[in-house]
Amino acid sequence: MKRAVIVGAGIAGLATALRLGRDGWHTLVVERASARRSSGYLVNLLGSGYDAAERLALLPVLSDRALGVFTTVLVRADGRPKFTVPSAIAEAALGARSMSVFRGDLEAALYEAVGDRTEFRFGTTVSSVDQDADRVRVVLSDGTTEEADLLVGADGVHSATRTAVFGPDLRVDLPYIVAAVPLGDLAAVLPESSATTFIGPGRTAAILNLGPQRSSAFFTYRCEDPRSELRRGPVDALGAAFQDLAAGVPEALRHLEKDPTSAYFDRVSQVVMPRWSTGRIVLLGDAAWCVTVFAGHGAALALAGADQLGAALQRHDHDIPAALADWEAGLRPEAVKRQALARRGMYQYAPPSRFHVWMNDITIRAITLPGVRGLLRRSIERQNR
């Protein structure tokens, strides 16, 4: 039986464990954290990501956790509405073969699907890696040494596996901060099945109310020194950047003050690498090609990458380096395209000026016009091919 060590118990790592486990591999998942992260922002599964979720038999479980479509109200800083984007517009944009879920729910579904197919070691890191033509040896922080046919680094944008094997300076840090805060019941603040979104120069705040325990806040903003912002922590940093806003933002910030550890809070980065594998070691997901939240395809690409990796390993059987090269050749064009779209997306989430905000408003208003919905769907479908 072939054996794989997978570093990281996020979407990419769990999806890889699921696919390889179903293909007959013995998998060990190593995770730095003491437990899985349960929070996170909304993710869209569409295109190759939706196809992968279908092949991995995740759709029946995820359908119970799907968020569906909802109305979005664009607001001014004081909470007064600018205009409304009906849920039908989102439905047209996403298409029939798509699904929106919270990141934590997707991870939970993957974890449940893996079941007893894999071994987990939480609170464990990789101390050193060595390989030859036949095996890869991984020394872990718990004092054990694991020998495997394949090592998969799926440990995210700050991947220690990437640094250890491929060297530093492959991550491109961008001048933005992103945060997601899970919320409780917002019925007294916002109507259910709706989102309010403020987009101003250099920042966006979105509050999503889909009922008790199904609501969250999303924040992103431009800053010159993201490292300094991270040192301040989410309470101080987000409070300073968004304390002047209304429409659910004050409630979200108060919720954050009560439980700062519940937030996802990080700088925005991309990972640009000339090659994702060497020998029997491969990077997958954000560790290899992080596209940033501005692209909206991180989770979908992680699922697609894991599924396509399993398919490539099946095609090439015992020649793992050839399988990894074949897999990368098929997936890299989509990752590169998504990274380019993300760089353009920065102007939507953090417009550099009031003029850019105004132009964004015009674009969004145009989407709501009769007859534009079909054009929008066809445009999205072309992007997802």
Provide structural commentary.
The protein has 14 helices and 18 strands. The chain is α/β, with parallel strands linked by helices and 385 residues long. The two termini are 35 Å apart. The strands form 4 sheets. The chain has a 7-stranded mixed β-sheet with strand order 5-4-13-14-15-12-16, sandwiched between helices. Strands 7-2-1-11-18-17 form a 6-stranded mixed β-sheet, sandwiched between helices. A 3-stranded antiparallel β-sheet has the order 8-9-10. The protein is globular and about 65 Å long. A hairpin with a 5-residue loop joins strand 14 and strand 15 (215-222).
Short structural description:
The chain is 41% helix and 27% strand. It is built from 14 helices and 18 strands.
CATH architecture call of the largest domain: 3-Layer(bba) Sandwich
Distance between the termini: 35 Å
Q: Could you name the CATH class of the largest domain?
A: Alpha Beta
Radius of gyration, in Å, reads 21 Å
Low-confidence sequence ranges: none
Shape: globular
Count the DSSP helices. 14
Total count of strands? 18
Beta-strand residue fraction:
25-35%
- For the residues shown, what is the average pLDDT? 88
Going by CATH, the homologous superfamily of the largest domain would be FAD/NAD(P)-binding domain
